[in-house]
């Protein structure tokens, strides 16, 4: 009996404490003018529900509070906007003080010079440096041939094997980017690099609490190791007498034709940015493309027809060239449709640099705004029968655009 009373007492105590903490946190953010919503637990907010439930979390909150609501995610008080008009306004309001606002964990781990962390002239400079790495001529003469060569070898031994597509597409995204960045050294670098990079990625999506055994702590350690590896690579190249084939690292080290002089630290942060931006995005899109093609044999048949047609015009073993790539109209439609239906990026994060009014709500300085754009991809007015995988819809669109 006594044990039962103790258990009931403990349970009641925990319930009372939890309710008090939740209530205290709600009161803390209960400022006049804020949109409705819940703030969750002190410090942790609603991060766990947000990460675990994904789009369902957003749908549930919208059903309760409307298209603009408040929450507390990834360590920050946040306004979520699912209102297309307001989203457009926010994205065009950099000059009014709404700046990119990625979580602290992401900024700490990707480095202080990464493009998401810098604003104004510094952002312009980093953007210029990155864009020069993907000029039309570089895409034609370097990026396309290197991807073609990489994919031929990456796919070479898949026959008669059970393949983990998620794993393979992740390897593909990281290794093909490494090849673009440091062509010659990429294969020797990749073994030590890959496990560190995976820890870095996990760390960017965690609460910024630096305790041993947390993803954030492991992410910071991984960043240190990656910075060391890339630093050594830069030093080796600088001390080497040999001339290198042109790759992204050599371009960045040469100041991209002397137009963008970056320090070694800035070069390393740009490289981490390129690898990070093209990792989850490209691997998940490619994985979903494989799934959709498997589920839709007619699409696969049409895609094969396009590719076999291109192959027929070439000698065996000839690489793909720019004209071949440009002629892949149906392939492009498959990529667009995969990107639409799979929606890899649900939205973008911004932050307020001063108190401001949005849609009649007063948003305090320093709050994050999650511009949630996912729903646009499933709007039946824009995409009839939106949940069907139908690449042909993009061919009709292109014809219409040409006619207009
Ligand atoms: C399916 C593939 C991809 C998707 C869906 C995607 C999506 C996005 C989105 C939504 C943004 C805007 C972020 C914001 O405004 O806050 C962005 C920015 C950016 N992305 Fe991607 N991305 C993809 C692939 C890549 C790849 C492969 C790279 C690099 C190799 C890359 C590099 C960047 C960079 C550098 C920015 C920042 C641009 C700036 O701030 O001026 N992305 N991407």
TrEMBL record:
MF (Gene Ontology): heme binding; iron ion binding; monooxygenase activity; oxidoreductase activity, acting on paired donors, with incorporation or reduction of molecular oxygen
The keyword Metal-binding belongs to this UniProt entry's keyword annotation: yes
Organism superkingdom: Eukaryota
Gene3D superfamilies assigned to the protein according to its UniProt record, in alphabetical order: Cytochrome P450
UniProt cross-references to Pfam families, sorted A to Z: p450
Keyword terms: Iron, Metal-binding, Oxidoreductase
GO biological process: brassinosteroid biosynthetic process; brassinosteroid homeostasis; sterol metabolic process
InterPro entries, sorted: Cyt_P450, Cyt_P450_E_grp-I, Cyt_P450_sf
Protein name (database record): Cytochrome P450 85A1
